[in-house]
Amino acid sequence: MGRGFDWIDDKFHVKAPHKRFLQRRIPPGLSYLYCLGGAAFCFYLVLFATGLLLSMYYIPSETEAYDSILHLQREVNLGWFIRSLHKWSATFLILCILAHTLRVFYSKAYRPPRELNWIVGTMALVLSFASGFTGYLLPWDQKAYWATEVGTSMAGTVPVVGPFLLNLVRGGVDVSQATLSRFYSIHVLWLPAAMSVLLWAHFHMIKRQGIKRPL
Q: Are 163 and 139 a contacting pair, CB within 8 Å?
């Protein structure tokens, strides 16, 4: 691998411009708790890769969504494994971000000059929950349907703008094909794009500000 990478570097010169990006000062006394953010990023990469594979077989249609999941589970080679990997990576992503948030709060790393990074990280946590919620509907089975029915109905309880929010989330009055299409678009396009921007900002600020020393 080393010789192969040296050959690539000889052609494209990728080491020099990224050397400073890949190297950073690490304060003494860090524990594995400081690796939770990196672990969350690894799960995000797994989600991205498995999501691309799942999108090749999934059909976001009222009449075909559930059957496409069954086809993926039963007939596609390693389809069950890819779907399970996607599901559990999403679970561990949320757990790692939650644990990372608690660690940052405990170590008081949210204080200036890192307050903006704290806000960005909190937004990433919210997006991870939103991704889990929108992805839950995609199998289009009874459990997913009624969970979405209950979850989206909460938007309708907001004073004054409740009906507008409910229609915005569902794409109509009821959970239907419009809701499935909307959730699929949000899940595979809008949320990954927004999460990628937030992660870039998060890592950029960490690079510039450094890692806070442990208490």
A: no
> If we measure between CA atoms, which residue out of 38, 40, 179 comes closest to residue 98?
40
pLDDT of residue 19: 65
Q: What is the DSSP string of 31-84?
A: -GGGGHHHHHHHHHHHHHHHHHHHHTT----TTTHHHHHHHHHHTSTTHHHHHH
CA distance 70 to 176: 20
* Cα–Cα distance for residue pair 147/185, rounded to 1 Å: 19
**Can you give the pLDDT at residue 30?**
84
- Distance (Å, rounded) from C-alpha 111 to C-alpha 117? 10
Q: For residue 78, which phi and psi values (nearest 5 degrees)?
A: 60, 15
Amino acid at 207: K
pLDDT along the chain (215 residues), means of 10: 73 70 74 92 96 96 96 96 97 96 92 92 96 96 95 92 94 94 96 95 86 79
**Spatial separation of the C-alpha atoms in residues 166 and 152, rounded to whole Å:** 7
pLDDT at residue 137 in the model: 96
Q: Which of 169, 160, 167, 166 is nearest to 133 (CA)?
A: 169
81: nearest Cα among 89, 92, 22:
89
Two structure tokens written together for 200: 């870039």
